[in-house]
Amino acid sequence: MERWIRTDEKQEFISSMRMVLKSLESVKEDLDQWKWVVIALHNAIQGAMVQALRAGNDFRIMPDKLAEKCYQAHRDNKPWPKVKMDSFPNLYKKVQSPDMMLFYVHSKALPADIERDTYIEKLLELRNSFIHFMPQGWSLEISGMPTICISLLTMIEYLCWKSGNVIWYKEAESKIAKELVLCSLNVAQELDRDYAN
User: Fold this and answer.
1) What is the residue-level pLDDT of the chain in tens, covering all 197 positions?
2) How many distinct helices (H) and strands (E) make up the chain?
């Protein structure tokens, strides 16, 4: 019997948020679950940024030079070069750029936030350390992790429901996704209070 997984950018985001929530809830009993929080949160943020930049095509989520080549190929009715997504740091810059984000009359760019910039850098550093783990002994202080999660989950909520750029064609998808984000935010706030004591 054949089995298929069907997905798109909305389902990928929802799947990542399910993992964020599951991992955050598991952290209470198993601190090793912070690894999966980091990896899933990185994936969820990337998904939120992609949705906020998309505007019906993929040009804004590609590296700029590749987007120009694809656009020219499209205009010339020629085959496109192989497409790929821009880097996470570049996507983060783009969602803060009015030039990139203001494509609908009600669109808003993500407001700049120096503290959040630091949290994004930390998340990237941790995610890369986990994904490309080199044999070593490593001690990671996790006392600030709930605060990082709160900031970055708030960013996700903004991009997906307050920027005006993400169109949820299915109300049920929007409801599930928002509930996952808000539940994750609640768990992170609870952990933040616990870690403060």
Assistant:
1) 888 888 889 999 999 999 999 999 999 999 999 999 999 999 999 999 999 999 878 889 988 898 888 888 888 888 888 889 999 999 999 999 999 999 889 999 999 999 999 999 999 999 998 888 778 777 778 889 999 999 999 999 999 999 999 999 999 999 999 999 999 999 999 999 999 87
2) 8, 0
90 in helix, strand or coil?
Answer: helix
Give the integer Cα–Cα distance in Å for 168 and 148: 27
Which residue's entry shows tokens 């399910």? 18
Specify burial of residue 196 (Cβ count, 10 A radius: 0-12, 13-18, 19+): exposed
d(CA 153, CA 134): 29
Question: Which two structure tokens, joined as six digits, stand for 69?
Answer: 């080549």
List, in order, residues 6 or more apart from 170 with CB less than 8 Å away: 10
